[in-house]
Amino acid sequence: MNEISSMTEAKPIKTPTLPDAQTVTQVKHYTDRLFSFRCTRPASLRFRSGEFVMIGLMGAPDEKTGKQKPLLRAYSIASPSWDEELEFYSIKVQDGPLTSRLQHINVGDEVILRPKPVGTLVHDALLPGKRIWFFATGTGFAPFASLLREPQTYTDYDEVIITHTCREAGELTYGAEIIESLKTDELLNEVIGDGFWKKIKYYPTTTREESPKMGRITDLMRSGEAFTDLGVEPICPKNDRAMICGNLAFNIELKEMLEGYGLEEGANSEPKTYVVEKAFLD
Ligand code: A2P
């Protein structure tokens, strides 16, 4: 047997794959601080729109032992529960342990995904109501990108209001594209019917760069301007339900405001009138 044929007959060496590895199928960069990506979905993964999972990459080898451990962070799944792929929306922190590397992933690369979805931004954690408010800052839009593409959102509520506050106008692009895509979303149009998206009111605002609407959503609600702009009655516990996802200071401030309107914090085990979750920060 010559050398070439012995090489072809030899068993291929299997490249070791990461534990719980999924393959990246799409990467989109929005600003120097934000990007989104899509990856394959494990066939066994079931989740409720709005939940999060742990995702990440293999960490650097330990200096003493040489062993590598996965570096994982909680990420809201931005795609809806029916989607055959998974989508994530991420910040890029230049010296962040995970996102300094995650921001450089390409199509075909592998990410680690622990298939144990959890979270409180789910319909099950809220009592029935007429109108639902989704309040986001920055990457806190991610769970709402999932819920906005979830048919249950429109069967459960007559009206859906999504507010998104960011520092700069470019940081609104991901959310604006999701909202735009709803108009032609085949599944939603088929399940809910034509014009379901007219139930949606989208209220994007910026705080540090000129845009059509400026200011923090909290200030705009306190002054009443947000309700006037949206043409809706202020929040009341009888009709309104809310989900909050943003930075810590925002979550705390808005929680207090919602409680001032008479809403109460719910959980999976005890559904009430609002729920809150912190957006991912590296
Ligand atoms: P601001 O620019 O006035 O701080 P970040 O990128 O730091 O997470 O912030 C995202 C957005 O959330 C920014 O527009 C920021 O406004 C806003 N924000 C931060 N803290 C609060 C808060 N307590 N209430 C409302 N909005 C907030």
From TrEMBL:
GO MF annotations, alphabetized: ferredoxin-NADP+ reductase activity
Gene3D superfamilies, sorted: Nucleotide-binding domain of ferredoxin-NADP reductase (FNR) module (3.40.50.80), Translation factors (2.40.30.10)
Origin superkingdom: Bacteria
Catalysed reactions, semicolon-separated: 2 reduced [2Fe-2S]-[ferredoxin] + NADP(+) + H(+) = 2 oxidized [2Fe-2S]-[ferredoxin] + NADPH
Cofactor names: FAD
Family as reported in the entry's similarity comment: Belongs to the ferredoxin--NADP reductase type 1 family.
Protein name in UniProt: ferredoxin--NADP(+) reductase
Native source species: Lentibacter algarum
